[in-house]
Structures
1.
Amino acid sequence: MRTMLVGLPVLMVAAALESSVLPDLRTPGGGGLNLVLLLTLSWTLSGDWNGGLVWGLLGGLFLDLLSGGPLGIHSLALVATAYVASLTEGQLWRSHILLPLAAALFGSLVFQLLALTGLAVSGVAIDVAIALTGVVLPSTLLNTLFILPVYAIMRRVHALVYPAPVKSA
Amino acid sequence: MTKFQTRSILVVALALVSVGLLVFGQMSWFEPVRSVLLWPLSALQRPLAAAWNGASRLLKNDPDTAALQQRVAELEAEIDRLNAEIIRLRQKENEWRIATGLLEYAGSQPENTYLPANLVGRSTSPFLNFLIFDKGSDSGIQRGMPVVTDKGLVGRVVEVTSTACKVLPITDPESAVAARLLESREQGVVVGRLGGGLEMQFITQQTRIRPGEVVVTSGLGGVYPPGIVIGTVTAVQQLTYEVQQRAEIAPAVDYNLLEKALIITNFQPADFSPFFRSTPAP
């Protein structure tokens, strides 16, 4: 429930930003920051493994609504990406700085390739080569760069929403 | 059930929801649901976009904005220039109007020759009414020459330098002009008053004067040519015990608005002084 209470407003604002502000900051080829993806990944890696999946669905739905494309493509891609990220649960190197970087790198690739595939399957005409070089690669790079501050913030938010239990002496 | 199993079920369920969205989202009956879901996002989108657009214009120094600012600056400069032009043209129009009036007057009095002159100064003393014009002896101006406008008589030249002349207006208390009532042809003398008005004196009691009657120079005394408008009667002071009556005259010339005047250059004041010298002993 707390996951939803936090996720709904955060993801709504992020999706609105992604459709109103971030398009102006895109690279010439069209690549840009996927804020909803970064938030979903960060929330998942912060420890809410199942909640991350729900964030994926919600965030993807918001992206679908604002993209003007078929509903379900981004949500499916984000749920899958969050699931991949959740597989890191229990790994000893979870707190290492490389984890969010790796998650952003692979998560971005997975998310965008899935979204690209979904759009192509839905009948949207896409030049795959241009999409890969102009959008997927620059976006992956940007997401990898910006995951660290987003992850740092979301870990704090997660700690506030789910405080660690105090051990009795 | 392990965590992994729970998560697997969850991810399958969520994936199914996504696929459901993918399938049902294409159908027409889903459109209202889509609209309802989109509404809060659109409500968020609008202020964010407006704020971002405003901020980005400032940050980017949008070429459109810069061009508009430059255009505004240009137009403001143009407005300033046009305002200055309007003021200049109004001044020209005023000068033209005055000059036209003087020209028409000069044309209506072909027997005289005129030299236009600009008023360049007034007496600084409130008790003296001298006017200074920008024409002097270099232009042929001589002492005693009458000064007129298209409205009427201004005064006469009393002092001349090479480049300027001093004119005693008829409203000065020192001034006395032989005058005639235009309709009744009665004669009198118009003298100046300290407040700037005029008074016609020495009018016989039998004369019927009515306010509004025009007073002109009579030419008697040879100081001014005859027929120049002095002013109009505004009030009559007729006392039964006096031999003569008086009339208040409003000057035809508004001295506060005076800018240009015509100096009659071919008029030579008559010199009567020899007639008043004592007769030499035989």
Note: Chain B touches chain A through 29 residues (CB under 8 Å).
2.
Amino acid sequence: MKLRRSVDRGVRILFSANAVLAAAVLVGILLFLLIYGIRAFIPTSAFDPEDPLTHPVKIISFLFGTRWNPDAYGQPRYGIVPLLLGSVITTFIALLLAIPLGIASAIFIAERLKGGVRIAIKMLVELFAGFPSVVIGFFGLILLGPFISRLFGVASGLNILNASLVLAVMSLPTIISVSEDALRVVPYSFREAAYALGASPWTTALKIILPAARSGILAAVLLGFGRAIGETMAVLMVAGNAPIIPRSLFDPVRTITTTIAIELGESTFNSIHFFALFALGFILFLIALGTNLLAESLIKREKRSFTL
Amino acid sequence: MMKEPPPARRIYRKLFISNIGFLFLAIPLFAFILFIAYMIFYLFSNGINVLSWEFLTKPPVQGMTAGGILPCVIGTVYITLLSLIFSIPIGVLAAIYLAEYAPDNIITRIIRSAIRSLAGIPSIVYGLFGVALLVRGIGIPPSVLASGVTLSLMNLPWIIATAEEATHAIPGSFREGALAVGATKWEAIRHNVLPFAFPGILTGILLALARTMGETAPILFTGVSYYTSGLPQTILHKFMALPYHLFVLATQHDQIMKVRPLAFGTAVVLLILVLTFDAIAFIIRLRIAATNKWQV
């Protein structure tokens, strides 16, 4: 009996240690990005007043600088603005498409589909969420790129429009499945009450269920945003990647994620450039973490509002 | 004094309008499904004639303009399996803790929230973390090991989420039955919960496996290579991987058009691998739904 009790206690401690370990990964990522990123802003051991490549970046010119050009002879520039703008613009256009399409799909699945068909469609959506991003990027590169270039008569189809379309498609599964969950959380009694008052299923879905699920749906939008702004490989393949402030839909664009992917390999370890890329990663991490925490609290709020 | 009920025709008209409305909502969903189907069809119809026994069993030759993709398949299998060796035990144990033991207090809430947030961290950030912690911090060279561990950190929260859900779905009465006849909590979980939660946990692991195989960003700087001669000798060697190989053939190679068929072939092989594991996972999930009456 004593042995069984101590086995029981040991198992509990072992299991909890693993949960703590998993949670510690988040703290680890935060710390490492911070420690590495911050070194772009303080003089390193290689600091040489004569060599501008070793000069630390000023935080102001990092956050508000409008040029990202680490290789410039004489005066490397580490302004995050064009990259942040690239990420935000592509994500914004993607969501402009994906939000209405995703929510419409979610309403249809939640209110109209039942049993096997519903499960099959949800699985297909989940399946696409797990598609390798290089495969989607490849598709955008060889099919969407030439199509855009021909349709609009522009020299290259690798631009903001292409990246936004690819990101729209990639954030759709997230938006669909999270909004669908949010709609299903609304108790069935809401629908019965509306039907009893003579509302049609259509009116019920739009006027009763959708507003009741609004915080969950907002969470879906946020998670879709997080998915789109963090995507790397697909954007890398279709965005054209010039680190300039774009002027039209057909300009190439460089995002935060793709800058890290392109430049980390060619930057020398312990250089200002290397650490500046970690600073970019830290910004990306903060955006993703903030989005997720907010989305999580919105989902919780919706669930709480239906429990008496 | 009661008002006349509306004539049946008016009700029918109302329902008709309602159905037309839903029909409009269905259009984007069906467009999306058609898009997915077309994409798969397009890649397969272009890549299927490249597939051959040679393509799967030969290394790339002549500056990667001919030959096969054997080292990429092997590399992808290595890093995926290695990542699961780390993340399955940690993930499943953590999930059981969260589902069965964790008290409802602030610490548990922080742990759960941290693990959920991990799932939303962009994969390129995991790549940076892998470089900082494993390559520069611990001193593991960019290799199968460094990439495997980086990927395991990334798929850990996916495994925990599905395993916790699967464990949580087992009704309380299963545990109570064992506890009533004198079992300790662990014995109750071991004999009356885990056997029933196992298929659900397995589903999560298979989905994580499929997604891990297609990931590129986390391995970019932790060991994947443009080209290696031969297979990785040990887990401390660099390797080639299918998704990165596709990226290279599609955008980095200096004879892009010449290697396009090989890129299609690589995409198809990667897609077949990913879809196979997804399909197995979905079949298991459908069987759970069909056999376990307590799960809805």
Note: Chain B touches chain A through 92 residues (CB under 8 Å).
